Amino acid sequence: MVILKVDGMTCGGCAKSVEAIIRRVDPQAVVKVDLASGRVEADTSVSVEALSKAVTAGGYDAHQA
Looking at residue 33, what is its pLDDT? Predict the structure, then answer.
């Protein structure tokens, strides 16, 4: 399980974008996004560094929670 704090998500579209970014890295990931807190949980075997890098490349500030 990877838990990220993602800053810059302001709407449901942002949350869907972050979820899509994570699923591009790992199509099998189970992703839960809490827009209000900026918390993203991903049940995946991909490293937190790889997911954080992908989400940041997508335009959001992401780091390990």
Answer: 97
